[in-house]
Amino acid sequence: MLIFEHSSKGRQGAPQSPVEKASISAIPENLLRKDSAALPEVSELQAVRHYTRLSQKNFSIDTEFYPLGSCTMKYNPRACNTLAMLPGFLNAHPLTPDEQNQGFLSCMYDLQSMLCEATGMAAFSLAPMAGAQGEFSGVAMIDAYHKSRGEHERKEILIPDAAHGTNPATAVMCGFKVREIPTLDNGDVDIDALKQCVGPQTAGLMLTNPSTLGVFERNIEAIAKVIHDAGGLLYYDGANLNAILGKIRPGDMGFDVIHSNLHKTFSTPHGGGGPGSGAVGVAKRLIPFLPLPTVTQEDGNYRYLTAKDCPQSIGRLSAFMGNPGVLLRAFIYMRFLGREGMVRVAEFATLNANYMMAEAKRRGFTLAIDHRRASHEFIITLKNEARDYHVSAMDFAKRLLDLGYHAPTTYFPLLVPECLLIEPTESEAKEALDGFMDALEQILHEAETNPELLHAAPQTLPVKRLDEVRAAKQLDLTYKMS
Amino acid sequence: MPFIPHTEQEITQMLATIGVDSMEDLFDEIPAHLRAPELKAIPKGMTEMEVSRLMHQRADKNTKALCFLGAGAYQHHIPAAVWEITTRGEFYSAYTPYQAEASQGTLQLTYEFQSMIAALTAMDVSNASMYDGASSLAEAILMSVRANRKSKSRKILIPTSVNPVYRKTAETIVKGQQIDLVEVPYDGSTGTVTLEQIKQQGEGDITAVVLQQPNFFGCLEAVDEITNWAHDNNILVIAVVNPLLITVLNPPGQWGVSGVDIACGDGQPLGAPMSAGGPYYGLLCCKQALVRQMPGRIVGRTVDLDGKEGFVLTLQAREQHIRRSKATSNICTNQGLVVTASTIHMAIMGAKGLENTAAACFANNNLLVEKLTAISGVKKAFSGTHFHETVLQLDVNAAQVLRALMAKGILGGFDLSEDYPELGTAIMVCTTEMRSEADIEAYATAMQEVLAAGVVSAEKVPATPEVV
Amino acid sequence: MSEVPSELKYTESHEWLRVEDDGLVTVGISDHAQALLGDLVFVELPEVATEFVAGDECCVVESVKAASDVYMPISGEVVEVNEVLADEPEIINSSPYDSGWLFKIKPSADELADLMDAEAYQATLEE
Q1: Which of A99, A275, B302, B448 has its CA 20 to 30 A from that of B396?
Q2: Contacts of C64 in chain A (CB under 8 A)
Q3: Which residues lie closer than 8 Å to A236 by C-beta, 6 or more apart?
């Protein structure tokens, strides 16, 4: 039932707004609204009950194991939320003069510094509001760098075929042509193919390491050399930073620019799809191009750097400072962890993934890439099960929901047929991993003996499988109150 | 170990299952000489008690001055229930609703959000939100270029009465795609753009025109006239609106004869705290015919196998994870959690509550402007009606006046000298429903004292002002 | 096994062409292509009277899981589009070679010889 269907004409919320409507007769008639907006008319209790009930229809980290590959669904510490919502932060107007905003600015400055240290980059901007905006800034900086050197012919970005879809979408948004680089069966980039593709037209390469195939790119130094020798720059997509935090740093691998998804590695909440943060870090030569604003510090006084200070910046990405509430949560999380806690993140995320991978193999599943270490995630391919029992990765995913587990990422990376990309994260206990593997093994057995059970799943959730064709064909995107 | 549950015994068992001796062995594919040094510049870990103390100290350093500053972010009352429900773990720690059956909460809520935003703007459809108002304008511009197939110029008219930060952000985001953002000057006496000025810049092939209502100065634009002219000339209209204020102002879907084509704006006034600049969200709406050009997530209502109502992400084929380099945008996420808050906010407030809030903003601003302009040396910069922000011309240096006000616990407004040097010494003041008559009186008194005393020099302002 | 009518011409990107008696050329997508895409939910047709060069993207067919460009197989001007598809894109699934045609063009050059016949197209599908 929709909130609109709880509505009764004339009912009003609560003492939440001025009781009387002040006169607005000074506004010219033709600029005024004629009818009230058709919003629901409900009591506060009705709204609270409705949205509490809706929340209960979600799977979440707080309620279920959520091994969604490439998304790093780790525990979001409650204290990070509580402390980021202190009144001193919530009531800060974004245009407050810097000297009156020192508490907030000092957190941002410290966060920039800690991200530099954790990734081996020279400087960071916290402005990008999501991974995709981080990518946008990174590629825009690569463009600005080449142009500043008069190299206008560098109009091509190289991207491995295993990459996230945002990589090519971003490159095109920044005015580049995209060239795909093939991946070898062992998960590494095909260096010979890469060598054939570079030249004076090369602006840069976008790479995720460990890759989306769940393995560390062993030839990273050779790749960096090929790109740098051709005059290009190396972009690090930080989607999988959780796997290597404190173990190896993108800056030390030769990357010139990176973005870090703070909502993955640094545990800010995913919130049902955002807000995120895609902070960008750069090597020294790209510092002048960082997006605005950034925070600097002189003698313990913090201030925003603006266009006046940074004339070569690629500019602003939002009205103010990205998503500060998210940045505060990342800052708090990093202070909890400290330097020693960061290394543990990578260690236990990797331990959990490799343990699950060993268990998967033992229980009869086919691994997409065998005989290699998993990063913080690994891939099962169900192509044999699809052939033998006519069940798909989607059927497995839906059946897992019935058994109380959120499904892994399905059908990504696109290179692996019928795949499940599984990322447990460091915050899950062994019994959660074992429980999940038991469920997966049970489903494998069901696929053999009773595939209908998989096809009909889920059965225990608020709805069964939904008609996506109807949704796309008979578009119903808004409810109109009569 | 913070947030890591493993016992020693479990670690041993797990390593044995994997078939390695130590944790280090798990990283043996990483070249040894590339391994990270100790991260010395990061402090050691802290307990919750210690982190809590640190954060309270830092939060307390921020000013508690009375806020008369707007310019794109506004202090409104948010019902306590809004963020109580929003931060329930089931909303807070869920991800993008890729598994629809296990995400009906987020999906239905988003559908309700789209419905409410479409109702507010009087537009056909809304998406699930963009990052913020400024980036939403950038995406609206990109969308107009895709949608207006009759126009080949990629030329967009933007009056300088549109928020300057929005214009800068749009420039950053669209400049890679050979789009020409043509500025149209505002009229110096009214603070609004005239149709004549738009026509002057708008000769030849134009793709779209942007109109902000109320504009950055808080002034009301002649939106009907300009919308009609644009449509007569095959030009799309992009509206930038404050979603709270259109509960009383004519909504963009009803501008002119046929309404605007695309509407965007920042959702912050509907349930997001100012929070030093975010997270907020960008709203983006359009006419039905343009829906497939819309970037970002969209939720649709459909049925399940039993014919029962349910909700899914739809029109995903436009998006980056499928369409890759040909996607409508590289955007993946929306501002889900803020959208959650905003939906609950709208439900609790209702149209009546929001209208009363908007009207109070208007009335309070009028009262403030009346009191301030009664002071010698303060006058309105523009004629005509203002909504809840007003530009005031001062006789003395605006920055110094604002500093002096700050020392008296008043965050007195926005200094326009950098973005609009032609206005001379001008500030923009803002009043929401949060400011009581006593607050307004306090501002007027402070202003009177500051101007009477002559402007103090910057050095004399104490670093931490007294709290009123 | 998808259907490949012998009287038509084909492209590698799965468009088919039929030369009509009046010299116009009708274009659609092959049975194989519609099966790969799955249930179609939307078709974005080119505008009538627009000139295209062979290889131009001229049309988008969209299913739930993919949106695919249709490339202009030969140079020419679009003279008619299949308006029915706006409301019933599923016709392409049920009748790709007949009532599911996309548009008709007036060729501006003689490029038909460069295209594949049914046998050659069938061979590319079997690869």
Answers
A1: A99
A2: 468-469, 472
A3: A207, A208, A209, A250, A253, A255, A257, A258, A259
Q: Which chains touch A (3 or more CB pairs under 8 A)?
A: B, C
Q: Which of A381, A8, A25 shows the shortest CA–CA distance to B359? A: A25
For strands C25-29 and C103-107, give the pairing. Answer: antiparallel
A299–B contact, CB cutoff 8 A: no
Does B149 sit within 8 Å of C67, measured CB to CB? no
pLDDT confidence bin for A365, thresholds 50/70/90? very high
State the count of interchain CB pairs (< 8 A) between A and C: 12
Tell me the ipTM for this assembly. 0.97
How far is B335 from chain C, CA to nearest CA, in Å?
24
- Contacting residues for A421 by C-beta, under 8 A, at least 6 apart: A69, A70, A212, A214, A377, A378, A379, A408, A409, A410, A412, A413
CB contact under 8 A, C44 and B292: yes
Contact B322 C67 (CB under 8 A): yes
Return the CATH number of the domain spanning residue range B80-344: 3.40.640.10
Using the predicted structure, report yes or no on whether residue B322 has a pLDDT greater than 80: no
pLDDT at residue B457, as a whole number: 44
Q: CB-side exposure of A94: number of CA atoms within 13 Å?
A: 24
Burial of residue A357 (CB within 10 Å: 0-12, 13-18, 19+) is buried
**Nearest by CB: C42 against B292, B316, B323:** B292
Which residues share a beta bridge with A259?
A237, A280
A66: phi then psi, degrees, rounded to nearest 5: -135, 65
- Rounded to an integer, the average pLDDT of B10-24 is 97
Whole-angstrom distance, CA of residue A259 vs CA of residue A255: 11
- Sort out which chain C residues have CB atoms less than 8 A from B316's CB and list them: 64
Could B317 and C47 be called an inter-chain contact, meaning their C-beta atoms sit closer than 8 Å?
Answer: no
B321:A165 CB<8 A: yes
Indicate the SS3 state at residue A278. Answer: strand
Identify the band that residue B455 occupies on the pLDDT scale cut at 50, 70 and 90: low
User: How far, in Å, are A456, B365, C69 from residue B68 at the CA level?
Assistant: 58, 10, 52
Helix (H) or strand (E) holding A154: none
Closest CA to A80 of A324, A246, A242, A269: A269
Nearest to B134 by CA among B9, B277, B326: B277
All residues of chain C having their beta carbon less than 8 Å from the beta carbon of residue A172 are none
Per-residue pLDDT reduced to its tens digit, B188-227:
999 999 999 999 988 899 999 999 999 999 999 999 999 9
In DSSP terms, A217 is beta-bridged to none
Please indicate if any CB of chain C lies within 8 Å of the CB of A472: yes
Structural domains of chain A, ranges and CATH numbers in brackets:
79-337 (3.40.640.10)
For chain B, domain boundaries: 66-76+350-460, 80-344
For domain B66-76+350-460, the question of CATH label 3.40.50.2300 is answered with: no
Query: Which A residues 399-438 touch B at CB under 8 Å?
Result: 401, 406-407, 409, 412, 426-430
- For residue C63, give the nearest of B149, B317, B323 by CB distance: B317
Give the residue among B230, B233, B232 at the shortest CA–CA distance from B209.
B230
CB A472 to CB C64 under 8 A?
yes
pLDDT at site C126: 83
Q: Is pLDDT of C127 > 80?
A: no
Q: How many CB pairs lie under 8 A apart between chains A and B? A: 682
Give the CA angle between residues A426, A428, A431 to the nearest 5°: 135
Interface contact A473, partner C, CB < 8 A: yes
- Is residue B460 very low, low, confident or very high in pLDDT (cuts 50, 70, 90)? very low
Domains of chain C plus CATH, in order, are 9-110 (2.40.50.100)
